[in-house]
């Protein structure tokens, strides 16, 4: 049995991953295509076959490839939601993760809403309108309300039409849901904010309908600040 050193395994994985990534970026392979055999891949990359095999197994765990018996290794399109679970688990162990994710959310959504003002289709606007109706109907409920809030902002990002921004949003979806839930808990502590939550989302939606990028960006940023104000106020009251 051949023993693989940790540093060799790490280097081997990086070589295999970079090789596969570059082939995809160059358009040389697409989902459904079969990779060259392990022996050839090992020779081409200058690593041992066991290292290649372990690297491919690791890639199969994140859905980048599928190892099929008597067929070989087939390239797949990874499920972003699966990658998001790994990402969320890693970030969840970081200090102040909620605040950090919120900063990323602001960056994603503020660019998305500007794009949405340019690109939103009738189907996109209908998704936003449906989510807005749910926000109004569930403003007194934490779980359903937070889900409706998430769906509205997810529809907003989708309306922007940027695949990269949508993938980034999907990757941190689990953490965003946690953030939405925390904010809805704050709403229940401050009944006066409920109308503001509904009104904010109405104004955001209308700005996208009006294709007013500057107004949409301004309203969205104000919406985020109001949430922070009440969240910090709630935290102070519990001290």
- Uncertain runs are 1-7
Multimeric status of the protein: single chain
CATH superfamily of the largest domain: GntR ligand-binding domain-like
Please give the CATH class of the largest domain: Mainly Alpha
CATH architecture descriptor name of the largest domain: Up-down Bundle
Rough shape? Answer: elongated
Spell the H/E element sequence.
HHHEEHHHHHHHH
Q: Give me the CATH fold name of the largest domain.
A: Four Helix Bundle (Hemerythrin (Met), subunit A)
How would a crystallographer describe the biggest sheet? 2 strands, antiparallel
Number of domains: 2
Distance between the termini: 59 Å
Figure out the total of helices.
Answer: 11
Strand content: under 5%
Strand order of the largest sheet: 1-2
Write out key terms for the chains shown.
mainly alpha; Arc Repressor Mutant, subunit A; Four Helix Bundle (Hemerythrin (Met), subunit A); 11 helices
What layout of secondary structure does this protein have?
Blueprint lengths: L5 H20 L12 H8 L3 H13 L3 E4 L3 E4 L4 H12 L5 H23 L2 H16 L4 H19 L2 H9 L1 H17 L3 H17 L3 H26 L1
Antiparallel strand pairs: 1-2
Helix pairs in contact: 1-3, 2-3, 5-7, 5-9, 5-11, 6-7, 6-10, 7-8, 7-9, 9-11, 10-11
Polypeptide structure, described:
With 239 residues, the protein is mainly alpha-helical. Helix content is 75%, strand content 3%. It is built from 11 helices and 2 strands; from the N terminus they run αααββαααααααα. The protein has a two-stranded antiparallel sheet with strand order 1-2. The N terminus is likely disordered.
């Amino acid at each position: 049995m051949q023993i693989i050193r940790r540093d060799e395994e790490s280097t081997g994985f990086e070589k295999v991953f970079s090789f596969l990534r570059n082939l995809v970026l160059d358009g040389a392979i697409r989902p459904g295509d079969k990779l060259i055999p392990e022996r050839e891949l090992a020779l081409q990359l200058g690593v041992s076959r066991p290292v290649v095999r372990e690297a491919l197994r690791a890639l199969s765990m994140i859905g980048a490839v599928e190892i099929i018996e008597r067929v070989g290794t087939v390239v797949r399109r990874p499920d972003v939601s699966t990658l998001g679970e790994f990402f969320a688990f890693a970030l969840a162990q970081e200090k102040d993760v909620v605040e950090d994710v919120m900063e990323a959310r602001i960056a994603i959504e503020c660019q998305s809403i500007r794009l949405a003002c340019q690109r939103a289709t009738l189907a996109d606007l209908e998704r936003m309108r449906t989510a807005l109706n749910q926000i109004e109907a569930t403003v007194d409920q934490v779980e359903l309300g937070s889900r409706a809030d998430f769906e509205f902002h997810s529809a907003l990002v989708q309306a922007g039409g940027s695949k990269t921004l949508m993938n980034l949003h999907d990757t941190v979806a689990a953490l965003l849901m946690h953030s939405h839930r925390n904010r809805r808990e704050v709403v229940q502590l401050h009944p006066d904010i409920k109308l503001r939550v509904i009104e904010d989302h109405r104004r955001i939606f209308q700005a996208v309908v009006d294709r007013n990028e500057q107004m949409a960006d301004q309203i969205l940023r104000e919406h985020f600040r109001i949430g922070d104000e009440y969240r910090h106020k709630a935290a102070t009251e519990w001290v």
